[in-house]
Amino acid sequence: MSSNENSRRSFLKNTALLSAASAIPGIWNHAQSQSNDEIPYFKASEKVNLACCGIGNQGGSDVMSFYKTGLANFVAFCDVDMGAPHTLEVLKKFPDVPRFQDFRTMFDKMGSQIEAVSVGVPDFSHFPITMLALSLGKHVYVEKPMARTFNEVELMMAAAKKHPKLVTQMGNQGHSEANYFQFKAWVDAGIIKDVTAITAHMNSARRWHGWDTSIKKFPAAEPIPGTLDWDIWQGVTQPHEYNKDFVNGQWRSWFDYGMGALGDWGAHLIDTAHQFLNLGLPTEVNLVKSEGHNSFFYPQSSTILFRFPERNHMPPVDITWYDGVNNVPPLPAGFTDTELDPNIPAPSNGKIKTGKLNPGKIIYSKELTFKGGSHGSTLSIIPAEKAKEMASRMPEVPVSPSNHYANFLKSCKGEEKTRSPFDIAGPLSQVFCLGVLAQKLNTKLLFDRKTKQITNNKLANELLVGLPARKGWEQYYKM
Q1: What does the alpha-carbon distance between residue 6 and residue 434 come to, in Å, rounded to a whole number?
Q2: N or C, where is the chain less crowded by C-beta within 10 Å?
Q3: Of residues 104, 103, 128, the one with CA closest to residue 474
Q4: Each residue of 180-192: b (16+ CB within 10 Å) or e?
Q5: Phi, psi dihedral angles at 371 (to 5 degrees)
Q6: Residue 46 belongs to what domain range?
Q7: CA dihedral 459, 463, 468, 470 (to 10 degrees)
Q8: For residue 109, is it within any domain?
Q9: Pairing state of beta strands 72-78 and 116-119?
């Protein structure tokens, strides 16, 4: 850390222990730094020439977040639907940026002007854009989860390793905020140690809740909006007829397109535990509960048990994932839910509507129990008596020197290192891929961490790779 960064450093000490009833909300520097319209000034030569693939919904949010860092010079926008209401805000804000519907055309025409690319498109489309960008020597910021299949993530990690001078970052934004620095400090100080179990819970209503789970086929074809290029939208996936329930965030509901609640929120709930406890890949993934299971879209609720082995003298860890409005985990003594951190961005379909429990996690070690929220929300120790007893022994926790977007752009400039590069975000994303396979097949999977193969289910093992790419899109798997 430079002397300038040291001079700006401040500390959060003991405050996370003052209340056992709630985690400390609002300590999320990304949101605080972007809560007003003050944009830092940088000369054009200090900015990164950034192309943005996906400029509506989450992609549009990413565009504005990059803009507010003051470090991005937008050189191209790409979206398969430039006339959709959700893209218009960005287009009106930046009317002079060249526009494209096909990312391949964008790279052909603008490649020499592009230094970095943001990928804020549906989960299944992350892979081809990222692979092409890396092959062309572009830094890549890709939204979470990294990709839809285990093998796609594997190929993306290999591509990043093949191009070590290129910067990569997955968009789990809280990984540059308070929880990241607190978790690391508490592990380094021996406060978080000997963890044996974690529960992660996401009990808000999802888009597919209430859908007919007895369906036997995909929804009927509907007229394609005139502004949408449906062929490009489908990318590498096997083709389907257009239906409104496939697009604009609805894609997350379907196994063919998205990663469900686990892929959407897992990266905001278990990312720090996964990294700083060195969890890697599980040996077992067991679908303990699945209500409303079908072969097309995600269950109405599910409970998934991930088992991780002993690592470097750390004990085995079980992570149990809970989704579904009424599918809440057992709660430890002294646990009281908190108001949702207001700095967590709302999903594209509106405000988060919680069930009985806000999104969060409970971490059980041999001596202590920790409670935390989502994204950058900090941990607290429960019960209150134990927290007060330990207050004088707590380590200092540095405030983040840059939010996730600035961290990426500064890393492109050689000033920082990204906090969620593919070698860290990849295995985390593969955990989600394994969980989704268990959900899709409604079964238990045994996994060999060395060979990266599923050993007890031939179909599941084949689905680590997935269906062949759509004709004309095979080349991205060979880059």
Answers
A1: 41
A2: N
A3: 128
A4: bbbbbbbbeeebb
A5: -125, 135
A6: 28-172
A7: 130
A8: yes
A9: unpaired
- DSSP sequence for 94-136: STTS-EES-HHHHHHHHGGG-SEEEE-S-GGGHHHHHHHHHHT
Q: Please report whether residue 324 resides in a domain.
A: no
Helices 126-135 & 150-162 angle (0-180, nearest 10): 10
**Which residue do the tokens 């000490």 mark?**
13
Which tens digits make up the pLDDT trace of 404-448? 999 999 999 999 999 999 999 999 999 999 999 999 999 999 999
Query: Cα–Cα–Cα angle for 301, 174, 235, nearest 5°?
Result: 65
Whole-structure pTM value: 0.91
**Mapping DSSP to helix (H, G, I), strand (E, B) and coil, where does residue 36 land?**
coil
The arithmetic mean of pLDDT across residues 391-414, rounded, is 96
Question: Is residue 426 one of the residues assigned to a domain?
Answer: no
Q: Is residue 367 part of a domain?
A: no
Q: What is the CATH number of the domain that holds 115?
A: 3.40.50.720
Residue 229 per-residue DSSP state: -
| 413: region left, alpha or beta (phi > 0 left; psi from -120 to 50 alpha) | alpha
Give 81's strand partners. Answer: 228
CA distance 28 to 37: 17
Per DSSP bridges, beta strands 317-323 and 397-398 are: unpaired
Distances (CA, A) of 311 to 196, 342, 391, 440: 12, 36, 29, 29
In 101-224 the beta strands, taken as DSSP E runs, fall at 116-119, 139-142, 168-170, 195-202
Give the whole-angstrom CA distance, residue 400 versus residue 381. Answer: 22
